[in-house]
Automatic annotation (TrEMBL):
One of its GO terms (cellular component) is ATP-binding cassette (ABC) transporter complex. It comes from the Bacteria. One of its GO terms (molecular function) is peptide transmembrane transporter activity. This is ABC transporter substrate-binding protein. InterPro entries: Peptide/Ni-bd, SBP_5, SBP_5_dom, TAT_signal, TAT_signal_bac_arc. It comes from Streptomyces collinus (strain DSM 40733 / Tue 365). One of its GO terms (biological process) is peptide transport. Pfam families: SBP_bac_5, TAT_signal.
Length: 547
């Protein structure tokens, strides 16, 4: 896909974003500018077993990822759950972050800046750091990646995480770089993990970015990619020359992509289990896997079912109608029946574990009478709604509760679950719709509330184009408040400002979560130690070991 196209034609940003949506864990099990799941199937068994072999400490670690491996692998572009997880093992940023706390630590850089509030950050590169092809990592490689991200003529996902606060990146000498900020922004340190350093000599070649999209991965991280079979598996081996802080514990790894739940669970269970760990475990399978000796852990975070309204389609331009439909949903029943207790009704846009969380001023408790009163006040009678929904399994499990709740207040509701790509292709084509139900999880990019909210709301944001709301006076005021909060230097004041504008987001309910739910990971504790289930799709095995 080309990066110099600025229209929304087949090769333009819309096409790239569809790929972004199709293959990620953000809308699906994760959504991406919307991140989202694709309906991929596992490859043939003979291909899936590629990379197996060895015994004892030299045996191959086999992992099962519940998302497709055939999305973009370009670190500056991707929101693919599989590719992002893999890239964390193949590439390094100047700084990387702990997968759970998201605390930054030196990766390619030798240390963190002494003053996070400074507007200039200088980083020395780790002595002896080399790429997987044996070439040394230099300042030119760092500048090359950041120039791509900050280039106004290049459309990348990473740009949205950097361009508001990072002015430029310059070379001081062969092994030193300097980042110049537009204003003090200490939260940017954690975001540096989203700028994976790639070899200039590889990716500056004609067509190399297309190769990156297709799966070419050459980094400096602890594991190097050895084979890539789209819709089947990707294999890795320990990089012998790696001298960084996260030493590889496994000689070889084979990551299988199995999107369908039944074969994914079968691969990790029973006496003939072919894998030691798997993510995206269905709630209904947790007890059986635990009885079979596996450990199953949940990660609670931003994973959520959300509703998105077309504000140009009456009566959804009326905030009272949007509020009514949220109040009508029996979220406690949804958590109990569909999520088997592995979730909570949303009490803010942010999940309750987020450091920036505060209970929103408007909370959509189940209140059918209030819902009816709001519809009456809006002059709405005999409303018929079709919910255009992604066909992600746990989302589909939640939809009957939405339908029964809306039917109960006199809103005739039709469910229309479809492949995720079909849903967002309609959005990209600006087709008419009423309500979309899908899943999102921006935690794969980070925890800071500023990043999460800008990912979902903003004047040029893809989501806002889908809702047709960006030109509304309330939206324009919201975006100004968001930008002011980004620039606020005082952490406590900034947190308060973000919480205040989240109150506006909650009240308007244009794109808003219904429930936040856990993502489940299962592993064999007799084989693996150091596993920490994460609250976003994919796996991080940089601190795991053979038991």
């Amino acid at each position: 896909m080309r990066d110099d196209v600025t229209d929304d034609g087949p090769a333009g940003p819309a096409a790239r974003r569809r790929s972004f949506l199709k293959y990620t864990g953000a809308v699906g099990a994760a959504a991406a500018l919307p991140p989202v799941l694709a309906g991929c199937s596992a490859g043939p068994q003979s291909t899936n077993d590629t990379g197996d072999g060895g015994s004892g400490k030299d045996r191959t670690l086999t992992a099962v990822i519940g998302y497709g491996n055939d999305g973009s692998w370009d670190p500056t572009q991707t929101a693919s759950a599989f590719a992002m997880a893999a890239n964390n093992h193949v590439y390094e940023g100047l700084l990387d972050t702990d997968p759970i706390s998201r605390t930054p630590y030196p990766a390619l850089a030798t240390g963190l800046p002494k003053d996070p509030n400074a507007t200039t950050w200088r980083f020395a590169l780790r002595p002896g750091a080399t790429f997987h092809d044996g070439k040394p990592v230099t300042a030119d490689d760092v500048v090359f990646v950041f120039d791509r991200i900050l280039d106004p003529g290049t459309q990348t996902l990473a740009k949205g995480f950097f361009v508001s606060w990072l002015k430029e990146v310059g070379k001081v000498d062969a092994r030193t770089v300097e980042l110049r900020l537009r204003f003090p922004f200490p939260d940017g340190l954690a975001r540096l993990t989203l700028a994976k350093i790639m070899p200039r000599h590889v990716f500056s070649r004609p067509g190399a970015w297309d190769d990156a999209i297709k799966g070419l991965a050459v980094g400096s991280g602890p594991y190097r990619q050895t084979a890539h079979h789209p819709k089947s598996n990707t294999t890795f081996e320990a990089f012998a020359a790696y001298n960084g802080p996260r030493r590889p514990a496994f000689r070889r790894m084979n990551w299988l992509t199995i999107v369908d739940a039944a074969p994914r669970v079968a691969k990790i269970s029973g006496t003939g289990a072919g894998a030691q760990i798997a993510d995206n475990i269905p709630y209904a399978n947790v007890a059986r896997l635990e009885q079979g000796g596996l450990k199953v852990g949940g990660g609670a975070g931003m994973n959520n079912l959300f509703l998105m309204f077309n504000t140009r389609h009456k009566p959804f331009d009326d905030v009272r109608v949007r509020q009514a439909l949220h109040h009508a949903i029996d979220t406690e029943k949804m958590v109990r029946v569909a999520l088997k207790g592995h979730g909570k009704p949303a009490t803010s846009f942010l999940d309750e574990q987020n450091p920036g969380y505060r209970r929103a001023r408007t909370v959509y408790d189940h209140d059918p009478e209030k819902a009816r009163a709001l519809l009456k006040a809006a002059g709405v009678e005999g409303l018929k709604v079709e919910i255009l929904a992604v066909n992600v399994s746990w989302v589909v499990d939640c939809l009957p509760t939405v339908k029964s709740s809306w039917d109960a207040i006199g809103v005739e509701t039709t469910l229309a679950p479809q492949e995720t790509t079909a849903v967002f292709t309609k959005m990209d084509q600006k087709q008419d719709y009423q309500v979309v139900a899908a899943a999102s999880n921006p935690n794969q990019f980070g925890l800071d509330a500023d990043l999460i909210m800008h990912y979902n709301y903003g004047p040029g944001n893809l989501w806002m184009r889908y809702t047709r709301w960006a030109d509304h006076p309330v939206a324009k005021a919201l975006f100004r408040d968001m930008d002011r909060a980004t620039r606020e230097p005082d952490p406590a004041r900034k947190k308060s400002m973000i919480q205040d504008y989240i109150d506006v987001v909650a009240e308007q309910a244009v794109l808003y979560p219904v429930v936040h739910n856990e993502l489940m990971t299962a592993w064999d504790p007799r084989a693996l130690s150091g596993i920490r289930p994460q609250p976003y799709p994919g796996l991080n095995l940089l601190q795991a070991r053979w038991a």
